[in-house]
Amino acid sequence: MRAFIIAAGLVLLTVAAVSADPAPAQLIGTWRLVSNTIEEIPSGARTDLFGPNPIGYIMYGADGRMMILQVRSQRPLPAGAAVTGAEAEALFRSLIAYGGTYSIAGDVITHHVDISWNQSWTGTEQVRHFRFDGNRVELATDPSPDPIHGKMSVRRLVWEKIP
To answer: Are 53 and 73 in contact (CB under 8 A)?
Structure first.
């Protein structure tokens, strides 16, 4: 029985390894955020999620781990050393940050979140469609509620590779 369980486990590991695509070499590294646009559904209205000049980085490691940090440019500076509740809320609402592992299948990259700025994302899978354009990569969500306003939308993030 023990031999059967071990054999079954090895078969499952082999199937899992075969079904996941390796990360393209050009994906590995650090990328700087160029734009983060949101297209609302069904209106089609397009806006910049964190304003016209968002700040952010995403990193993909060869070890299969990733981290992302995005903030709105022109974030409000707290008035004093102790942040008020309203100031903390404004800062929280101008931030997206999470980390975990990633897997790739075709043109889809899935971020398996194990730590997050918003605990409701911890333990989730964030699915993105990706495509390369020179030294840039675009990540696009499926239609879903955006993490800041909750509006049904597609988010398109363009990242530029840092040499």
So the answer is: yes
